[in-house]
Amino acid sequence: MSQTSTPTQVVESFLDAMVRMDFDRGIAFVSEDCEYTNIPMQTVHGPVGIREVLDPFFAPIHENEFIILRSAATGPTVFMERLDRHRLDHGWRELPVNSVFEVHDGLITVWRDYFDLGAAASIHDPAAE
Question: Cα 82 vs. chain centroid, distance in angstroms?
Fold first, then answer.
């Protein structure tokens, strides 16, 4: 990542890669010791931990849209309110997410996603509406 990129630009580039499910490119934006927490779940560290969480979630997903509703940044901290949309065999599902990122030296060092665990689980349930 270019040292001239702002923290917001780093996060936007990361999310752009993730929405396209280019996880190798996305992971390049996180530090080796990045702390990633899905707030209703566990904290993992680094690219390997992040992939262990994301790979199973995204495996059945065919297409994504991340709609940024609001964002704000102060220093290295970036806040984003998103509507994550996922297309699976049974149609599109939506998940409201709030994220907090910290970016240092062009890499994401902290990533926290806040969402409803029940809503996230229903994404993979064909019977859920």
Answer: 10
Q: Could you report the per-residue pLDDT of 18-42, keeping only the tens digit for each? A: 999 999 999 999 999 999 998 888 8
Q: Which helix (H) or strand (E) holds 93?
A: strand 91-104
Could you tell me if residue 2 is inside a domain? no
The token pair that represents 6 in the structure block: 């702002």
Neighbours of 108 (CB within 10 A): 25
CATH number, position 72: 3.10.450.50
Q: Does 128 reside within a domain?
A: no
Secondary structure E strands in 11-75:
30-38, 43-45, 63-74
Say which residues have a Cβ less than 8 Å from residue 49's Cβ, sequence separation at least 6: 36
CB-based contacts of 126: which residues, under 8 Å, 6+ apart? 88, 89, 90
